[in-house]
Specification:
The complex is a heterotrimer. By secondary structure, chain A is mainly alpha-helical. Chain A is built from 31 helices and 4 strands. Chain C contains 19 helices and 2 strands. The chains are: A mainly alpha, B mainly alpha, C mainly alpha.
């Protein structure tokens, strides 16, 4: 049990690597990338140790739980802890983070070089990526909401730094800012939610909050804000999850976030940043469970996101952008599963998605790295130039589309099973549409990138297969992509020593084992095949004229989809026409009605003379003083209204 | 002291104080304003006497009328243009209305509150008590006052002293940028700045 | 005549500081050949020595000087704090003063006189003493703001600050005199030494009044509530001016912009902290029994201040003005701490006081970090607009990084001081029944992130512009100061427990009934 109780070492290792790299990274040979690899590799190794201890503990009937930590701050009754919890959810997350993290770090050692020479700030890249992985590990291990929030913001800052890594490029900095501000907007809600929950329960400890919720102690809180208190605080908390997981209407930042180096996108999309929201809801699901209306909101948001972004992904031409929208859409699937109360299913999809999405992004990375091109319209026919990349990419795409027996099939099918069991047919059909869309956009991407005639001979000529160090992570992740889904089955789980399939393992209160609904399985399989055929009919090679014809017949709709339903534009408009003018109005009030012209710079100062001093300096002073008197008078009047009986 | 006499003294001195204060604000000419200020000070001194604070009354006359007001008069006389041409403020009438309201509120508060008598009883020989407390319990505030005056004096000299040495380096650049007028005072055609940004 | 035993030993740090400041002024006048840096470094060294000695000898003394000045842990905490800030301001300002100012002896001397006023202010437990200390601090600051006397910005800022400061003092004094009229005393502590008639202090008098309004059987006073309301509004207005709370804040941007940069740093850090130290002691030791009469008032001001400061900061183009409005926003958060004094129990009130002081210290350390970095930049370029920071990441990457850290901390990002301290203050507000203020605070601190990011964007996104685009170096003493401050920002952000405990032990002094 040593490692389960000293699990803080896992996040500490990459964080230490960060500090060393930050201080001396630029002087180390190879920019210190080996330090980063070593730290993450050790975490990867320790994951298996923790996993074995965890499984032993379950086998011994100890429940596989371990808590550790210490008091960070204690004043009176107010206690803040730094503490860690290991349970099955945390173990799955550690596995995903460590695996994808290690692969990404290895891959980056090649990707961040051009012709054998490291890019500028190579050391800084590895420093931040270590911190990113460390923060994410801390996030999933935290046993209280406050520590979780701190790690949560740490993840945000790292993503800000990594997305803006190429800070010479204006678009990169803008994207970084957008990602940061958008997720922070959710975080504001989350912090408010944490404080509200703290008021209700007097604790930041996740287990205590959940216990309080389950014991019904949160139901009688009308002394603060009436009956909606719990719902409100939980929904505030959910805002944070929505922001981080890029759910509608916060989905706008994720596609822009691909401005960072491609391995970073793999990390953000698969293992670190965006799954944090799913993790948070999964972790707090018992709380959501007892909150009236909360699960319905989660479900609705997830479904809306899956559909909306699925449609948008159809019309994108940048490889990474298609993948980005597909991530948002798949996260929507996970939230749907959570909305049905099925933690295990959501975690399964999170895991399989992490593997195939990491493969897809790293594959896209090797295409971009080798061909210097990421517009799918100028690629095409690539498969025979880079066969290994093509095979891994296609397998992962099939997994995402939900083709048996790849992992995506199992996890998606599970989602359909729980939706069928708990929700009505309309939701099942809508989810089917979303699954159909994901098959279409993935098949489209594969067709126009790897098949058909090359559109640009220049590009195809300079493209070679990626170097071995980039292919190894790809192949490794592809193997996982192909087989990870089998863990859903009881027999496989038992064979590996898990107590039943992954569902059972992750969520004990959920008694059901893996149930294979053959009708649904066949149905979803057919939907996926139908999607792929549709994509073939519309986009494969010369068939693309059909898509073109379709676009010409519905130019408005096409424009709307291509412009992502104008979300970015409308947000920009809202900022320009609502927030900033509001600031301007306050500023104007402060400066004109209340304040003076300030110290106005050279224009006024050229008239620096006795005349000017009298008129502008002393002349304005009475107005200042007058405002103070008005302030006193208004406050006094308020006082008499409020306080004198 | 008879009741009637006391009331008469109180009301007439109050009228003197307040009337003087009003005239300070109303008069355009600064010298007139200072004269009214002196009147107002004398009124306050009189009020101190009615409260049997004769030492304070004396100090009021000596320090405020004798020293401060005279200093002000000198300052005004040495600043040729300051005494005249004071413009009207646009805010004059709003300010008057506001002050009227504030005064009304003050009167209301004064009348509504049960102030109660001084809990310490009458003060005997004023100067002795003040002197004693200034070297006893209130020795520290007294000394803080001394340090404050020192600081103010040091600062005032530092600000007002004509430097016999050259100007600091950056003044030349300020003149170049048009921030400061050139030595002959002509800076009309300096470039316009960004101006008000709101 | 009751003779009080005057224990001068208790105020040795103040006496030493006053003499030291005078000696520096005189020394610089007499020994004109000595380079001015010497006086700066000498002053800083003297302050640091005094700081260490104060910290060593005065912890847990808990006595008072003639019942006008408390020498307790709270006093010692702020003595140490103000001495430290003054030392930082002087260190950061030596090069600046050498390049751009005259009369260096007076410059350093006045900084120390202001520091003296601040130390006394935090210690006062008597209204006249407090008022005089406040004026000592303010007079020194008025002069220091105008110390760059050939710069019209500086003159204008100083003049506005002086005239409005005098006006606010008048309001404040009027409030104090009404309070005196109601309570008949100027002593606020509840602890009375022998030899003075028992029960003569503001807290007790106000306690009697509030008891009287509940239970009118008590014979003491009639209805004094109108007078108390007016007195409190006036006192809050006067203090609101000193801490630059809305609507008494207009002097702030002008004075900040006009003042020489080291003085802007000093003014925004120590000046504000001193006013808050006084604010807190007055409102917890003396006025707590009347909490119902002022908590709504300060709550309104706090909300206005947070919103106005952060929104107007969005529109600023000058770095000093931006920092002025950002500090106004921070004042709003700090005022929440005062509001939260109004709680169910003394222990909860003390939590609020602790949270307030913690945020104050964290904010001040961060703010001094920002200004020290800006001074380093200004020494090289002589510019202080936000656009002038363009390309700083290329010209001096370390400075850009430290400035970014400080700005992130001000925006309340975790890992940095700003998050830990702000969180504690919001948490206290929520638990003491002022949840809506915490919600406003969290929301506007999101807004604040936007304008801090604008500054960071200028540093990292753009190429340097103009004729001066080369790299430059920061002198070692300044780099040392920056490193210490950055360390403090991280320490408070990551492990505030020791500081929290120290503050808790000091604020316990403010609640003798605890």
């Amino acid at each position: 049990m040593f490692w389960m109780e000293h699990v803080w070492i896992l996040p500490a290792l990459p964080v230490c690597a960060f500090f060393v790299l930050f201080l001396v990274g630029r002087f180390l040979p190879r920019g210190g990338d080996w330090l980063s690899i070593g730290a993450v590799g050790t975490v990867f190794g320790l994951f298996f140790v923790v996993l074995i201890e965890h499984l032993d503990s379950i086998a011994d009937g100890l429940g596989g739980l371990a808590n550790s930590g210490f008091t960070w701050l204690q004043v009176g009754e107010f206690t803040l802890r730094i503490g860690w919890t290991v349970d099955s959810i945390a173990v799955v997350m550690i596995g995903v983070i460590a695996t994808v993290g290690l692969m990404v770090v290895l891959y980056s050692t090649q990707y961040m070089r051009h012709h054998g020479k490291p890019e500028p700030r190579y050391w800084w890249y590895f420093a931040v990526i270590s911190l990113f992985i460390g923060s994410m590990l801390a996030l999933v291990l935290a046993d209280n909401l406050l520590l979780l929030y701190v790690a949560w913001e740490g993840v945000g800052v790292c993503s800000f730094l990594l997305i803006g890594f190429y800070h010479e490029r204006r678009s990169a900095v803008e994207a970084a800012k957008k990602a940061f501000v958008t997720t922070r907007l959710g975080d504001v809600g989350m912090l408010i939610g944490i404080i509200l929950l703290w008021r209700a329960t007097g604790s930041f400890q996740i287990t205590e909050i959940i216990q309080a919720a389950q014991a019904g102690r949160l139901d009688d809180l009308p002394q603060v804000m009436g009956d909606g208190y719990l719902t409100m605080s939980v929904l505030f908390l959910f805002l944070g999850a929505m922001g981080k997981s890029a759910q509608f209407p916060f989905h706008v930042w994720l596609p822009d976030a691909m401005e960072g180096p491609t391995p970073v996108s793999a990390l953000i999309h698969a293992a670190t940043m965006v799954v944090a929201g799913v993790y948070l809801v999964a972790r707090l699901l018992p709380l959501f469970d007892v909150t009236p209306g909360a699960l319905e909101v989660v479900l609705a948001i997830g479904l809306a996101t899956a559909l909306l972004t699925g449609v948008i992904a159809l019309a994108q031409t940048d490889i990474k952008r298609v993948l980005a929208y597909s991530t948002v859409s798949q996260l929507g699937f996970m939230f749907v599963a959570l909305g049905c109360g099925a933690v295990g299913v959501a975690m399964l999809h999170l895991m399989t998605h992490a593997f195939f999405k990491a493969t897809l992004f790293l594959g896209a990375g090797s295409i971009i790295h080798m061909s210097d091109e990421q517009d799918a319209r100028r690629l095409g026919g690539l498969w025979w130039r880079m066969p290994v990349t093509a095979v891994t990419f296609i397998l992962s795409a099939l997994a995402l589309a939900g083709i048996a027996p790849l992992s995506g099939f199992f996890s998606k099918d599970e989602i359909f099973v729980v939706v069928e069991a708990t929700q009505n047919e309309a939701i099942l059909v809508l989810l089917g549409v979303a699954a159909f869309l994901s098959a279409v956009y993935m098949a489209r991407l594969v067709f126009i990138t790897f098949f058909g005639a090359p559109k640009d001979l220049e590009v195809i000529r300079r493209t070679r297969e990626a170097p071995a160090l980039m292919l190894i992570p790809l192949v490794f992740l592809t193997v996982l992509t192909a087989f990870a889904g089998w863990f859903a089955m009881d027999q496989v789980g038992d064979w590996f020593g898990f107590p039943g399939g992954i569902n059972q393992w992750i969520y004990f209160p959920e008694p059901e084992a893996f149930h294979f609904n053959s009708a649904l399985a066949v149905g979803t399989g057919l939907v996926s095949l139908l999607g792929i055929s549709t994509a073939w009919w519309l986009f494969y090679g010369r068939n693309a004229r059909r898509a073109q014809a379709l676009r010409e017949r519905q130019p408005r709709l096409a424009a709307m989809v291509e412009n992502k339903f104008y979300f970015d534009e409308s947000y920009q408009w809202a900022i320009d026409h609502a927030v900033l003018p509001f600031g301007r109005i306050v500023a104007r009030f402060d400066r004109l009605v209340v304040n003076d012209t300030g110290i106005n710079g050279p224009a006024n100062l050229t008239r620096w003379s006795g005349e000017w001093v009298r008129r502008h300096v002393t002349g304005r002073l009475p107005d200042y003083a007058l405002l103070m008197v008005i302030g006193v008078a208004v406050l006094g009047a308020l006082g008499f209204l409020l306080r004198s009986n | 002291m008879s009741d009637v006499g006391f009331h008469l003294a109180f009301w007439s001195l109050s009228a003197l104080t307040i009337g003087g204060a009003l005239m300070i604000i109303v008069s355009r000419n600064l010298i007139h304003a200072v004269i009214f200020l002196i009147l107002s000070f004398i009124g306050v001194a009189g009020l101190f006497i009615t409260l049997s604070a004769d030492f304070l009354a004396l100090v009021q006359i000596l320090v405020y009328v004798g020293a401060i007001a005279v200093l002000m008069l000198f300052a005004i006389l040495l600043t040729p243009r300051a005494a005249r041409d004071n413009e009207e403020s646009l805010m004059r009438y709003p300010a008057m209305i506001l002050m009227g309201l504030v005064i009304a509120a003050g009167v209301f508060v004064a009348l509504e509150t049960d102030w109660g008598p001084m809990r310490e009883g009458a003060i005997g020989t004023q100067a002795k008590i003040i002197g004693e407390s200034l070297i006893n319990q209130y020795v520290l505030p007294f000394e803080i006052g001394a340090v404050m005056l020192t600081a103010a004096l040091v600062g005032a000299i530092a600000l007002a002293r004509q430097d016999d040495e050259d100007l600091p380096i950056h003044t030349a650049s300020l003149i170049e940028e048009g921030v400061l007028p050139p030595p002959d005072g002509d800076a009309a055609d300096a470039p316009a700045g960004p101006g008000d940004d709101s | 005549m009751d003779v009080i035993d005057l224990e001068y030993a208790l105020i040795i740090p103040e006496l030493v500081l006053a003499s030291f400041a005078t000696l520096i002024v005189a020394g610089a006048l007499i020994f004109r050949r000595v380079p001015q840096e010497v006086w700066g470094y000498l002053s800083a060294a003297g302050l640091v020595v005094l700081l260490v000695l104060t910290a060593v000898f005065y912890i847990n003394v808990n006595d008072d000087f003639a019942n006008v000045l408390a020498v307790d842990n709270y006093t010692v905490l702020f003595r140490v704090f103000f001495l430290g800030i003054a030392a930082f301001a002087i260190l950061a300002g030596v090069q600046f003063a050498g390049d751009r100012l005259r009369h260096h002896g007076e410059f350093y001397g006045l900084i120390m006189f202001a520091t003296l006023g601040m130390m006394l202010l935090a210690a006062s437990r008597e209204l006249i003493t407090a008022y005089l200390s406040l004026e000592l601090m303010s007079f020194s600051l008025y002069i220091l703001v105008g110390f760059n006397k050939l710069n019209p910005f500086s003159n204008e800022g100083s003049l506005k600050y002086l005239l409005l400061g005098a006006f606010s003092s008048a309001l404040f004094l009027y409030g104090l005199s009404i309070l005196y009229g109601v309570t008949g005393t100027t002593t606020y502590s509840a602890i009375e030494p022998d030899g003075i008639e028992a029960g003569r202090n503001i807290a007790q008098q106000l306690g009697n009044f509030s008891a009287a309004t509940i239970d009118s059987a008590l014979p003491i006073p009639g209805d004094v509530r109108p007078a108390i309301i007016v007195a409190l509004v006036l006192i809050v207005a006067g203090l609101g001016f000193k801490v630059s709370a809305v609507p008494f804040h207009q002097w702030t941007p002008d004075a900040y912009q006009g003042a020489p940069l080291p003085i802007t740093a000093f003014l925004s850090a120590a000046g504000k902290a001193a006013a808050f130290a006084f604010f807190l002691r007055l409102f917890s030791e003396a006025l707590l029994p009347a909490a119902a009469e002022w908590s709504w008032l300060i709550a309104v001001i706090a909300a206005l201040t947070m919103i106005t400061g952060n929104l107007v900061a969005l529109r600023q183009t000058n770095m000093k003005r931006l920092m002025a409005y950002s500090s106004i926003g921070q004042v709003g958060y700090l005022l929440i701490g005062i509001v939260a004094l109004d709680a169910g129990s003394l222990a909860e009130s003390q939590d609020a006081a602790t949270a307030l002081v913690l945020h104050l210290l964290g904010y001040v350390a961060t703010n001094v970090l920002v200004f020290t970095a800006l001074i380093a930049f200004y020494n090289r370029t002589g510019k202080d607009d936000i656009v002038d920071l363009r390309g700083l990441a290329e010209r001096q990457p370390m400075l850009a990084l430290l400035l970014s850290i400080a700005l992130f901390s001000l925006a309340g990002m975790p890992l940095f001081a700003g998050f830990a301290t702000k969180f504690v203050i919001f948490q206290v507000a929520a638990s003491n029944g002022h949840l809506w203020l915490a919600v406003i605070g969290v929301t506007v601190s999101f807004v604040s992130l936007y304008y801090y990011l604008m500054v960071i964007k200028q540093m990292y996104l753009y190429k340097p512009e103009g004729d001066d685009t080369g790299r430059f170096s920061v002198p070692a003493p300044m780099m040392g100061a920056l490193a210490v401050l950055t360390g403090a920002v991280f320490l408070v952000g990551l492990y505030p427990a020791p500081l929290f405990k120290a503050i808790d032990a000091s604020t316990a002094m403010l609640f003798p009934g605890l």
